[in-house]
From TrEMBL:
Organism superkingdom: Bacteria
UniProt-listed InterPro entries: DUF306_Meta_HslJ, HslJ-like_sf, Hsp_HslJ-like
Organism of provenance: Pontibacter rugosus
Keyword annotations: Signal
One Pfam family of this chain: META
Cleavable signal peptide: 1-19
Full protein name: META domain-containing protein
DUF306 domain sequence ranges: 33-139
Length: 169
């Protein structure tokens, strides 16, 4: 009986430790998929993304149907096609609108990176795109509602206030 008093607590600690450390190595792949998620741009080539005031969040979305990719660079909309494998990803026929932007260099870099991407990895809620084995862009998953691209009304309200404060009606 005394041996049982020592064995039972040991077994309980052992089972608890094993239960807390064993994970399905494909859990992230099961929870997140590249398709039909809104991926907000987090970093380009390891650098945090610049976001001027009153601009919108850059994002990318891989449509499940027709393999269409589309998104927003922070200033312009972009679109194209993609092919995806288990860890491979290739985008093609990329195009975009052509508005002048405060951070044109960042926008041009973003589009050039998308053109070079050849693979991807998802870890938890982060999508990392790779080119030649190097991480070139990182995104965080979200929903359409989490992309704060609806700043037009806020900007219009600010313009109305500024005009009213000057006395122009």
């Amino acid at each position: 009986m005394k041996k049982l008093n020592y064995v039972v607590p040991f077994l309980l600690v052992f089972l608890f430790a094993v239960g807390c450390t064993v994970q399905n190595k494909n859990q992230a792949a099961e929870d997140y998929t590249i398709k039909d998620a809104y991926w907000s741009l987090y970093a380009l080539e390891g650098e945090d993304v610049q976001r001027p005031q009153n601009t919108m969040t850059a994002f990318i979305r891989f449509q499940e149907n027709d393999n269409d990719v589309h998104g927003f660079t922070g200033c312009n909309k972009f679109f194209g096609k993609y092919e995806v494998g288990e860890e491979t990803l290739k985008m093609s026929k990329l195009g975009s609108t052509r508005m002048a932007c405060p951070l044109m260099e960042q926008e041009n870099m973003f589009m050039a990176i998308l053109d070079r991407v050849d693979s991807y990895r998802i870890s938890n809620n982060f999508l990392t795109l790779y080119a030649g084995g190097n991480a070139v862009a990182t995104f965080v998953s979200g929903t359409e509602q989490s992309i704060d691209n609806d700043v037009t009304e806020e900007v219009e309200e600010r313009v109305d206030i500024e005009i009213d404060s000057v006395g122009i009606y």
